[in-house]
Design goal:
The protein has 6 helices and no strands. The protein is mostly helical and 120 residues long. Helix 1 packs antiparallel against helix 3.
Length: 120
């Protein structure tokens, strides 16, 4: 597999995560719970992150092994939960992922990108 595809998948993950941050900027929990368009935007972007994580795991299993600190299973599992039962997704779970887990994931992805760019 081409390293370019791996970088593309990582870029998709980072872009989707950054979009979530922009979608939620200036939005508190109560406003999020009342804004269906924000809920759907966050859910779709989390699903995109999970899809990219699943493709990386399938196409680049050695990369997943080399980066066990990334929550590969969580990302893929949440993607499946959204895709298979979107209307049953708890808003609290979306909110918590976006605020508690996503910032750390974005830092990790950024760190990986810089590490790879330096040729380490």
């Amino acid at each position: 597999m081409s390293l370019d595809r791996l970088i593309t998948h990582l870029d998709y993950m980072q872009r989707a995560g950054s979009e979530i941050g922009r979608f939620l900027q200036g939005t508190d929990r109560d406003a999020f719970f009342g804004a269906v368009e924000k809920q759907r935007a966050v859910g779709m972007n989390l699903m995109m992150i999970g899809e990219a994580a699943a493709r990386i795991a399938e196409e680049y299993p050695e990369f997943v092994v080399d980066h066990p600190d990334l929550p590969w299973h969580v990302m893929r599992d949440f993607r499946n939960r959204i895709a298979q039962g979107y209307f049953d997704i708890e808003l609290t779970a979306l909110w918590d992922l976006a605020h508690k887990s996503l910032p750390g994931l974005l830092l990790q992805l950024d760190s990986i990108r810089h590490w790879r760019a330096e040729g380490e």
